[in-house]
Amino acid sequence: MDAVDLVLRKFDGRPHRQVTGRLLGEDAYGTWLGTPRGTVVTYHYGARPLGRTKVSAVRLLPAEKWWMAMFLAEPAKREIYCDVITPLRWTGPAEITVIDLDIDLVRYRDHRVEVEDEDEFEQHRLEMGYPPEIVEGSLSGAASLHEALVRDDEPFASHYRRWLTRVDG
User: Fold this and answer.
1) What are the beta bridge partners of residue 9?
2) What keywords appear on the UniProt entry (predicted)?
3) Which fold has domain 3-164?
4) What is the structure's pLDDT at 1?
5) Closest C-alpha to 104, from 93, 95, 116, 114
6) 17-57 pLDDT tens trace
7) What is residue 93's three-state secondary structure?
């Protein structure tokens, strides 16, 4: 399986986070990347520049959506972690770049869904001058994603599990 770099930047172009995953495949939901437990993640913020994933995960990057999702293996307390982003761009033969737009949605194993970092979105919207189409895409993407997570729509119900089994296998 081919390695693919997933690069997250902030709206002003600053690097935010980067991880290299294995391209597992594509289906009607988008591109699936696997990151086995122990995968290195580079952070361009905070006190720790490098980290390692604590559990295996599969990442879904839909082609035209304003979000991406990470489905985490047990024993992680979080089942699904989603970033609100600009739609993905292939920026190289093995590189996907997205703009992280701050809002995150988390679904825990008890199916509780929480929205995080709306305050960060508002702060960056003002500081970085998000244009109206970015604000609209972010907010509508977060709203539709929230609804799908709460309703347990696919690929959030069980579809992702077949991809997750391929990460360590």
Assistant:
1) 15, 99
2) Hydrolase
3) FomD barrel-like fold (2.40.380)
4) 55
5) 116
6) 999 999 999 999 999 999 999 999 998 877 677 889 999 99
7) coil
Q: Can you tell me whether residue 144 is helix, strand or coil?
A: helix
Tokens of 62: 């839909």
Token pair for 83:
């970033």
Q: Which of 52, 51, 1 is nearest to 26 (CA)?
A: 1
Token pair for 150: 């709460």
Tell whether the torsion through CA atoms of 47, 126, 87 and 32 is positive or negative: positive
Pairing of strands 89-92, 95-108: antiparallel
Q: Where are the domains of the chain?
A: 3-164
Tokens of 161: 């599990």
pLDDT digits (tens, 9 = 90+) for 97-149: 999 999 999 999 999 999 999 999 999 999 999 999 999 999 999 999 999 99
Question: Phi/psi at 60 (nearest 5 deg)?
Answer: -110, 125
CA neighbours closer than 13 Å in the CB half-sphere of residue 20: 6
